[in-house]
Amino acid sequence: FNEAQDGLAFRIRIGPLNKFHRSSEFVGAVQRSRAYVDQFVQKAIRLRQSPDHDESKDTNQHYLFLNQLSKRTLDATELTDQLLNILLAGRDTTASLLSMVFFTLARRQDVWKNLKAEVDLLDGRRPSFTDLKGMTYLTWVLNESKSHTLSCCNSLSRN
What we know:
Blueprint: H1 2-14, H2 24-49, H3 65-69, H4 76-107, H5 109-120, H6 129-134, H7 136-158
Helix pairs in contact: 1-2, 2-4, 4-7, 5-7
């Protein structure tokens, strides 16, 4: 995925000259990335087309983007493109957000202590989606870190 993303960035940088640039590494990376995602797409399509599939049970399952998307289309190429788009968009932004969170937690003992106290209320169990939505302090930490990440990115782009 990294190799494919780097290849895409290079192709964008060289603009119209990219038609003259051939890279078997890039082509292979794109094929491997698409093949990896396609296995999940095919599973979702098989599930949706199964005669045993009960649409009413979908609301009781965990929310999965692919399950929701497959309700709108069963076109494998479109589903693969959409998943790759989400992976591409979410990867770097999530990494930036987590970097800022850890940067803050390493420097602010008070924030670490408050966040730890909220997480300790889970008594070691894995949080559900509802638990995460109800963790107010965690939400504040993520939102504050996100705003710091955005302001850092904006100041970098102005320079």
